[in-house]
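TICKET #2291
ISSUE: user wants both folds in one file
ATTACHMENT 1:
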Amino acid sequence: MLCERSRFLLQGLKCRRTFVTVSTAAEKVFSDTSSAAFLAAAGNLKSVPQLHVTGRANVGKSTLFNAVLGRKTLLHTSSKAGRTRELNFYRVGKDPGKLVLVDAPGYGARGKREWGELFDGYLETRKQLKRVYILFNAKHGLNETDTSMLQHLSQYLISKEGTQPFTLQSVITKVDLVPSNQVAAAIAQIKKDIFAAAPLCLPPILTSCEMDPPFGIENIRKNIAEACELA
């Protein structure tokens, strides 16, 4: 999953001097869940709309995305990996929206080279991109593919000019699937593995979309608002 600041607000908020907390900003941005809408799908860089979350296939990406948007079926969820094959853009809030979330194809055994090329091209050229969210299944931890992806993403975190074009945020999904007496050790190991592969990756946010109410979603929303400089 990736988040972008709306081009409209990038221009329109420069002269404003009103300050609100991250929590209040997130509540305002995500309060009108009925207005969240699909904007466009991009199968190649030429079709990316002029206005990015990733994770290993079947890590619960679409389910988390729906929860963050406050919807249940805006994104189609499937037990089969590799359902997402394009960059899918979703507006948050009423038109023109305050930010855009982008659902990216999963990586791993079901991934395809052309999906990776599209994703990399997006990272290299998308000026509006503020933060990339990479998801890990709490029950499975990191595998070799996850480690490679973290290392790959780290290459983009510092530009040739020495600036940071976007930030990388880790998210741990399906925490409820880990036995309670094993959660602490499992999370500690995942944190250790993330840091070893990508020291600049932000510490993980813990989530579970199967709990009632879902756990960690408000933290994700606040994180997105902060990344998009809405506070």
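ATTACHMENT 2:
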Amino acid sequence: TYAPKLILLDISDINCIQDVAKEILNCYGCVDILINNASMKVKGAVQSISLELDKKIMDANYFGPVTLTKAILPNMISRRTGQIVVINSIQGKIGIPFRAAYAASKHAAVGFFDCLRAEMEEFDISVSTVNPTFICSYHRQPAPGNWEASIWK
């Protein structure tokens, strides 16, 4: 039994993920189950959401989980065991109005992890994608002109 260790990670900060993965592997030696369960979303018409915000959503919902998974994966492959779980969204299967960036990031995640599932079968590594319907998330009301405050986390 290992004592729990709190390791803070901003999943949208791609540059720090590799170091965090190394810290986890140095502390525990391996990861048996990786659960990717971080997400950001914003509600708005496509023309009103900046490309900067689209990229931030993609970093948190797609590149973050992909980067963390790729950092942990070699350890799982070398041990020929492990489980990767992605808590995604029904919007990774269908798009709805005013959620284009979010739906696009979730579609990308579904595609990546579906391919990974097929590739990891030979190593006995399980890859699961969970796509729940709408859930109640933490939300802050934005100040006028403050798009960052309109992000759901």
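RESOLUTION: both attachments delivered.
EXTRA DETAIL ON ATTACHMENT 2: The mean pLDDT is 87.
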